[in-house]
Sequence to fold (236 residues):
Amino acid sequence: MLCGLRRDTKSSIDEGPYSKGSKETTDQSHSSQGRSLSEEYRGVTTVELMKREGSSLGLTISGGSDKDGKPRVSNLRAGGLAARSDQLNVGDYIKSVNGINLSKLRHDEIISLLKNIGERVVLEVEYELPPFVQNPSGIMTKNIEVCLHKEGNSFGFVMRGGFHEDRRRSRPLVVTGVRPGGPADREGTLKAGDRVLNIDGMPLNRERHAEALTMLMQSGQEALFLIEYDVSVMGE
Fold:
């Protein structure tokens, strides 16, 4: 593995159409607590978590049939199981838990369900797809190879998007969050808004989100990522 070699050096002052300086995930413009995402902005993924008996998932859920809006992740506790999975963002909607649909449940029923769930927790998650990348004038893209070392099944970043038969819903695989203190954060190159082009030389442009996640989990303890990112081009 040629993890010691890099194609480029990423400048700390790079700017692009995303907010790259923040490690926190913010809500996108097309979603709100009270209404559903339109079809073309909606992505769905399955998140499986394994927790020890008596431990918590480390996430806070707001909403419910008696509250304003669908059940959604309002907080991920730093160091908690959900945060360390690198599969969830604040603002994600939780559609079901272990096959139980949450749409008709009150807030207190959802909390009780999560507290009393078994060790294996399967969440059906709806999220807002990353926006289409249309680089404005003054912005160019560059590629860089980044070597990361896995912790558990994760490299410390959340990735969303992926191929879809419906062109309106196809997106690059976009980094939407970098977990503070995780492998990607410690390495220092990867930022929210960067696009993951391949893993260990395997291209991802035709991979669905679930398939790309599987590739991440099945990769070795050390993996080489080809990343596309944006740079400001200063005018004369």
User: Anything to note?
Assistant: The radius of gyration is 18 Å. The longest strand covers residues 139-149.
